[in-house]
Design goal:
- This protein has one domain.
- By secondary structure, it is mainly α.
- It has helices at 3-29, 31-40, 42-45, 51-60, 64-70, 78-95.
């Protein structure tokens, strides 16, 4: 493989890593804004590579009920709905 292809892959991995870190930071610092964006664009939620981590942060901050409502949003997709339901359920059981 050429060095150009390898460097393109490295840049892509770095960009994904930075986006992942930024999204987790937004989830921690601006959860309401993130939830509002999820409600506006539910089909994008399932595209998040770090969905489970983001949901865990939001649940820890007390947004479990809002996330449960998001599970019923049109277009959210089965994967995202399942991940959200599972994380919220485990958090509910752990706090009980």
């Amino acid at each position: 493989m050429s060095n150009v292809v390898l460097s393109e892959r490295a840049l892509r991995r770095q960009a994904i890593s930075e986006a992942h870190s930024h999204l987790l930071e937004v989830a921690a610092k601006q959860p309401k804004t993130l939830l509002e964006n999820f409600r506006m664009y539910p089909s994008l939620v399932g595209d998040l590579a770090c969905l489970e981590e983001v949901v865990e942060i939001l649940v820890e901050q007390g947004f479990g009920k809002q996330l449960e409502l998001l599970c019923d949003a049109p277009g959210i997709g089965r994967y995202a709905s399942t991940v959200i339901s599972r994380v919220v359920l485990f958090a509910t059981k752990a706090s009980a």
